[in-house]
Amino acid sequence: MPLSKVYDITIVGGGIVGLATAYKLQKKYPDLTLAVLEKEDRLASHQTGRNSGVIHSGLYYRPGSYRATNCVNGRKQLVAFAKAYDIDYDVCGKIVVATQEEELPRLEKIRENGIKNGLVGIEVIDKARIKEIEPYIEGIKALWVPESGIIDFKGVTIKLAELIKEINPESEIITNCEVKHLEKGEISKVYTNLGTYKSRYLVFCAGLHSDRMARKDKVNLDMRIVGFRGDYYDLTEVGMKKIKNLVYPVPNPEFPFLGVHFTRMTDGTIECGPNAVFTFKREGYGKTDFNIVDTVEALLYKGTWKLFFKHWRFGLNEYKRAFSKRLFLKQLQRMCPGLTMDDIKPGRSGVRAMALGDTGDVIDDFKIECQDRSIHVLNAPSPAATACLAIGDEVMAMAEKHFGL
Q1: Residue pLDDT, tens place only, 241-256
Q2: Residue 58 and residue 224: Cα distance in Å, rounded?
Q3: Structural domains of the chain sorted by starting position, each given as residue range(s) with its CATH number in brackets
Q4: What is the pTM assigned to this prediction?
């Protein structure tokens, strides 16, 4: 890459948040020259391309939080984008199923939360209505959430990249480009394996490596990214007849995950999962994957151990399910008792970037910060993919203020 070229803004990270941010900037400021740097050989290689493909409604998030407001706003933008550019999607609705009496107060609390977040049409339904929607699901009550759906997030990401190039052919999407270190200034230098890139401003949307990129930029952090792997099973051809769309359990508020659920994907296949286990490699999609740097960094962080101590019982059960198809099936049978061992087969896996504070508490809201001539998306947990276009708006507003666009 010639050192003479200077980009206006360089975005580090080729997932859906990075591309949505670049698209929003390029659309409003078509004369800006942008560079998107992605270390893998294709876009959407990690969290974007390995999540459950769900269009989240905004049901679970604390009213007034960034997650809540950006999810609802982002969902509407995402569906409009999919319609405009022929992206595979389906707003099919989902049910959140209570299988025990003790879950009913939590189900009602979730319903109230969804109403506060502006969701339309959510309602508590009885056994008969559950059977109409999902004939094989057993529950005493459920919450019907009509605004949830499914989408091809990889397809969205690729389309965003195409649109950026259409708006300004001088902007570039550069893959196989890993950032090594930075030299900040009025014209910053980004040193990569492909050479040095010059840029007036920088935006980091690095997902699993957001804290590492921030440290390269000398950001004072009070958090650390720790990876948690989620394993999925696929329903076999016979098993697929037992699920129509999206089926979720009532989440346990003491555990920072939603629990294993059923998801019909846009290609018609049906996934069930994920579990959630600590991974010894940030991009460790295999059950035995290991990286010494990732492991030592995570286990030397006091927040990791505090999280373990708080949730050790849940963590132990998750690990057991990770290595036992029978135990995984048993969890699924809580909602779908007719499911058998022959109905499920091992599927793919993903890794979630969990942001932990020093206290071991999960930072559950979006976290975006400025540092001199750069912006860092430090934490973008689910529903970040659903909210990507709204997050892009947030970052663009910060860029307008701090970069003087």
Answers
A1: 999 999 999 988 776 6
A2: 25
A3: 6-48+154-222+364-402 (3.50.50.60), 94-146 (no CATH), 224-244+253-357 (3.30.9)
A4: 0.95
